[in-house]
Amino acid sequence: MSVLARRVTAESIGTAFLVMAVVGSGVMASRLSPDDVGLQLLQNSLATGAALVALIVARQPVSASFNPVVTLVERALGVVDTRTAAGLIGAQVAGGVAGTMAANLMFGLDAVTISTHERTGPGLWLGEAIATAGLLLTVFGTVRSGRPDRVNVWAGYLCTSDTAVPVSSSRRER
Questions:
Q1: CA torsion sign, 17 to 19 to 138 to 163?
Q2: What percent of the chain has pLDDT over 70?
């Protein structure tokens, strides 16, 4: 198997499992704590953080970006070439879709549903921009420090005004 094929496979599987953890823990949190959104956020973020650490440690020797924005910045910095970036982003998107569908099916939901919760507005977009900047600073700061094995997993997650999974899963089930 070529290096690119190994990286694409690692990104697809890693992203699928990460999204399964995010979506699945969001559904489970909404079921365990239906009236406490704060507790849902805590349950979801702890499960997501633990899954992210495990996946990065397991996949890092091959590839562990799991995020198209990280891959695009890697391309802009010349860390990966255009062909590699395109393959990794395709794998991340496909893995994310597959992970979402698998998590939904594991919890007895339809594989694909349309959200009825509108997520837009200046505050949300600002929160997403800040969370993305936090993610990029953490990823590339950790790599630049010469200690890529050390990861701060919640840098971007709790900064966002959306943190969509607990809200979306609780809305979807009602």
A1: negative
A2: 84
